[in-house]
């Protein structure tokens, strides 16, 4: 009976750590994508030191969880005391890191709000200026994900119009619906979108 119980615990521990291993792999993948993404999402992250640090923390946590899951799986299946010792040491480190992250999130909570990102967008966005890294990156993200600003097209009302623009509304081209969500995609109705017709705009 005792042997069956230990065997059950061993396989439960393996299963639990396998999910940790998968979670760590996903987190690691997202961290790498944020830093090296070819659409330029990394430029938005790099514009703020706090977000830039957060991306690397996510990468480090993903790597740690990946290693933790691996050690837990191997230690459980092989019943290796050395691997299990490393496993419990990693759990302690992760607990301390999570505690630190919670404290930092509480201290810098005002920098992780919609209002903060909206303010940054209104401050730095230069519409269709592809020579400006910040604007070009925002345009790429909005086109790729069929979205518009942080809250919607209204975020751009305070952004200065282009000097030669005679359109009434301030909606940037990147917010207009396309038949294919890429820079090469044809606009559904560009003129109507730019003049504020909501059904031709990406509203999310």
From TrEMBL:
Regions crossing the membrane: 12-36, 56-77, 84-108
Gene3D superfamilies registered for this protein in UniProt: Tetraspanin
Keyword annotations: Glycoprotein, Membrane, Transmembrane, Transmembrane helix
Subcellular location: Membrane
Superkingdom assignment: Eukaryota
Coiled coil: none
Membrane topology: Multi-pass membrane protein
Signal peptide (from-to): none
Entry-linked PROSITE patterns: TM4_1
Keyword Transmembrane helix: yes
InterPro entries, per the entry: Tetraspanin/Peripherin, Tetraspanin_animals, Tetraspanin_CS, Tetraspanin_EC2_sf
Keyword DNA-binding: no
Listed Pfam families: Tetraspanin
Any one of the GO CC terms: plasma membrane
Family note: Belongs to the tetraspanin (TM4SF) family.
Protein name per its UniProtKB record: Tetraspanin
Source species: Nyctibius bracteatus (Rufous potoo)
Lineage: Eukaryota, Metazoa, Chordata, Craniata, Vertebrata
């Amino acid at each position: 009976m005792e042997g069956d119980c230990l065997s059950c615990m061993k396989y439960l521990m393996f299963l639990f750590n396998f999910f940790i291993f998968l979670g760590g792999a996903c987190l690691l993948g997202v961290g790498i994508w944020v830093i090296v993404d070819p659409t330029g999402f990394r430029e938005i992250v790099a514009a703020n030191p706090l977000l830039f640090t957060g991306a690397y923390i996510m990468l480090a946590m993903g790597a740690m969880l990946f290693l933790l899951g691996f050690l837990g799986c191997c230690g459980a299946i092989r019943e290796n005391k050395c691997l299990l010792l490393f496993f419990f040491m990693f759990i302690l480190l992760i607990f301390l890191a999570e505690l630190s992250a919670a404290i930092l999130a509480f201290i810098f909570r005002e920098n992780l709000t919609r209002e903060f990102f909206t303010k940054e967008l209104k401050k730095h966005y230069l519409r269709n200026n592809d020579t400006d890294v910040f604007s070009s990156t925002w345009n790429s993200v909005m086109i790729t994900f069929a979205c518009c600003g942080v809250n919607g097209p209204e975020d751009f009302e305070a952004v200065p119009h282009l000097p030669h623009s005679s359109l009434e509304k301030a909606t940037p081209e990147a917010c207009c619906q396309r038949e294919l969500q890429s820079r090469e995609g044809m606009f559904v109705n560009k003129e109507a979108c730019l003049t504020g017709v909501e059904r031709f705009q990406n509203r999310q």
